[in-house]
Design brief:
The protein has 416 residues and is an all-alpha fold. It has 17 helices and no strands. It has one domain: Na+/H+ antiporter like fold (Up-down Bundle), CATH 1.20.1530.20. The longest helix is centred in the last third of the chain and has 39 residues. The C terminus is likely disordered.
């Protein structure tokens, strides 16, 4: 099928199913992913996954992360990564990783497949978490701050380990492992130093009384109002490019780049225009394609080994829920909020598929394990918003939405 025909089918079916699930008070991303499953090889076989659709999906990921980043405050996310937030992040990665390793050992997988099993179960998809929280009006809540911070740290650690594994020679010893680890650490510190330096520069300029919004207005006066979106995209793309060239996924750098931007750098009406433009291009067009593209990767090949598939699904879901609930309780969240945190962390989506696809393309895992990992990524991503809805309930979600709509409102009280 031609690319434009495939896009037309994906957009129409994804929007229709997304609207249907919204009518049922469920997030639209469930319907959008199911559109890919129905149109893809699993059911109707009308659309095959291909490089062109994957490229468009990558652009959608960029816009989803950009939209989430500008909605959040840099200092709040950084503070969520320290102290108590670090406890949530460590539990959110360590417990699922150990669960994946135990499953691999139970099925006598070799060390390489054991590592990849642990990584795929441990990751949380930042774009999926961001879109889901935004759809539900929870993006400025403590749940969102800790979930986003945990997702960022989980993905950084997973990609850090992945970079070390891929850099190892065929016959690697302890010295090779140590050398690769030190190089990856240096690269990660370099990326974090760049982001921290940019943030310090922005704060220094503000401290000197320099109105950053006037600078953006001058640029708009020179290049035109339509250039605002382009300028923001270039700024964020720069950080994504640096992240990618250092060997990490571009999502990590792009998110931190977007996080540096807020309403202080723009006139109020410009900032609102920017958010509307992002919503139109992302949620209205590219984002449904991204989630439908995830559904295209689902196949029934994994059903050949039912017990392995069921164990992987149960362990992946249970370990993230337990890790999120346990971490949330340790930092003082109520039971329902802690369970909601675990539900958000359960969505793996694109990040898990990135790790699985790299391993499959490199010949490090076989087709059976790849199919199981794809199934796990799709199922956990679809299940995540359903569990989040169940955890909070309608009243709590509406209270959070009202608090988000009023910037002066304080965080919603916890459900005891």
């Amino acid at each position: 099928m031609q690319l434009l025909t495939s896009l037309l089918l994906l957009i129409v079916v994804a929007r229709l199913l997304g609207h249907l699930f919204t009518h049922w008070r469920q997030p639209a991303i469930i319907g959008e992913m199911l559109a890919g499953v129905v149109l893809g090889p699993s059911v109707l076989n009308l659309i095959q996954p291909n490089d062109a659709l994957s490229g468009i999906a990558q652009l959608a990921i960029f816009l989803v992360v950009l939209s989430a980043g500008i909605e959040m405050d840099f200092q709040r996310v950084v503070s969520a990564m320290r102290g108590r937030g670090l406890v949530v992040a460590l539990l959110g990665f360590a417990l699922p990783f150990i669960g994946g390793v135990l499953v691999a050992w139970g099925y006598d997988l070799d060390p390489m497949r054991t590592v990849f099993m642990g990584l795929c179960i441990a990751v949380t998809a930042l774009p999926v978490a961001a879109r889901m929280l935004s759809d539900m009006g929870l993006i400025n809540t403590p749940i969102a701050r800790y979930a986003i911070a945990t997702a960022v740290l989980n993905d950084v650690v997973a990609l850090f380990i992945l970079g070390i594994v891929l850099a190892l020679p065929a016959d690697s010893g302890a010295n090779d492992l140590l050398s690769s680890g030190l190089v990856a650490c240096a690269k990660l510190l370099g990326l974090l130093a760049l982001v921290a330096s940019a943030n310090l520069l922005i704060r220094w300029l503000e401290g000197r009384g320099i109105n950053l919004s006037s600078i953006s207005e001058r640029l708009i006066g020179t290049f035109g109002a339509e250039a605002l979106f382009g300028m923001v995209a270039v700024f964020v793309l720069f950080f994504g490019m640096v992240s990618e060239n250092l060997g990490f996924h571009f999502v990590i750098g792009a998110f931190f780049g977007a996080l540096l931007l807020d309403q202080r750098q723009f006139a109020p009406e410009r900032f609102e225009d920017l958010k509307r433009t992002l919503a139109s291009v992302s949620a209205g067009f590219l984002s449904p394609i991204f989630f439908a593209d995830l559904g295209l990767d689902f196949t029934f090949r994994s059903f050949g080994q039912i017990d392995f598939m069921v164990v992987v699904l149960l362990v992946s879901i249970a370990t993230k829920l337990i890790a999120g609930w346990w971490g949330g309780r340790l930092i003082g969240m109520a039971h329902r909020e802690a369970f909601a945190l675990g539900a958000v962390l359960n969505g793996r989506g694109v990040m898990e598929l990135v790790v699985a696809t790299i391993a499959y393309d490199r010949g490090l895992i076989g087709p059976t394990m790849f199919s199981v990992l794809v199934l796990m990524g799709v199922v956990t991503t679809v299940l995540s918003p359903i569990l989040l809805n169940a955890a909070l309930g309608r009243e709590a979600r509406e209270r959070y939405s009202r608090a988000n709509a009023d910037p002066a409102a304080k965080a919603a009280p916890q459900d005891k």
